[in-house]
Design goal:
binds S-adenosylmethionine; Rossmann fold; seven-stranded mixed β-sheet; three-stranded mixed β-sheet; globular; alpha/beta
Length: 267
């Protein structure tokens, strides 16, 4: 499955600042599988949250807002989301996310059935949280932390420490990630159209079971199913494009919901 393309290794900030321009259009199969799998997980986590409650969400690694914007679209399955804090390492990705959410809210402004969530964006590095002191205001505020396709860039303890920092006790995390089956062969990156190089950053191939175990150490428990998804031949041309061909039969994605114990206090 290897490619003879030259590879350039860069920091994750540089990777995503450069990838931002084509992130939503370069036919990345993992995003397509995530688009397919996320709605069920979102519906599931919203059934766990009391329907009478107003919901506050922190998104860790919002990227270009691919999934942030889904939270702005009212759905009968969703509770009333009052605020979303969308955080990301990469200013380039955040610029696109802000524009995308602004455009979405403008074009849906005539829908007055429900007030749209207040949304704020922050540059934030989970590996260096002290560089973003304004984030302190978000400590223990979230009912839900959403984090899609970000975990591969973080050590597991950093991921769960960060999620726990943002969550109120009894809150939920919905996480999706590149499966280790894919991560052992590949990692997040894109092809620079000008140089033809594959640009990649730093990634980990986390096994699903290790993620669950680490979460448990931090006071989380899985609720619902742990989902794993391989690319099937029927996905070609429907869910994924040509780039999906080499991944047929390989697990590429996992995702699930965990709840933080009510008893947990911050470390
Ligand atoms: C594969 S993208 C996923 C973006 C978006 N969640 C999605 O599903 O399309 C990974 C994102 O994680 C962000 N990221 C990587 N390392 C991070 C860190 N240390 N702290 C915060 N965000 C990080 C990147 O900037 C990038 O936007």
């Amino acid at each position: 499955m290897g490619s003879s393309r030259p590879v350039q290794s860069v920091t994750n900030t540089e990777l995503y600042n450069r990838w931002a321009k084509v992130y939503d259009t370069d036919g990345n199969i993992l995003q397509s599988i995530d688009d397919l799998m996320l709605p069920d997980l979102l519906n599931q986590v919203f059934t766990f949250l009391p329907s009478s409650n107003l919901v506050t969400i922190t998104e860790l690694g919002c990227g270009t807002g691919r999934n942030t914007v889904k939270l702005l679209t009212p759905s009968p399955a969703f509770p009333q989301i009052t605020s979303i804090a969308a955080l990301d390492l990469s200013p380039g990705m955040l610029t696109i996310a802000k524009q995308r959410c602004e455009d979405h809210l403008k074009s849906n402004a005539s829908d007055t059935t429900q007030a749209p969530p207040l949304i704020e964006f922050h540059e934030f590095d989970a590996l260096n949280p002290d560089l973003s002191p304004e984030i302190n205001a978000l400590e223990r505020k979230a009912d839900l932390v959403l984090s899609t396709l970000v975990l591969e860039h973080l050590p597991l303890d950093v991921f769960f420490r960060t999620v726990k920092y943002f969550l109120r006790s009894g809150g939920y995390v919905l996480l999706t990630n590149m499966h280790a089956g894919m991560g052992r062969i590949s990692q997040a990156g894109f092809v620079d159209e000008v140089t033809g190089e594959k640009i990649r950053g730093h990634s980990y191939a986390h096994e699903t079971s290790q993620v669950v175990e680490e979460g448990e150490k931090w006071g989380f428990e899985v609720v619902g199913e742990v989902g794993e998804r391989a690319v099937g031949s029927a996905d070609l041309g429907t869910v994924v494009g040509e780039r999906g061909k080499k991944w047929i039969g390989v697990n590429v994605w996992f995702g699930f919901v965990m709840r933080l114990s009510q008893m947990e206090t911050q470390p």
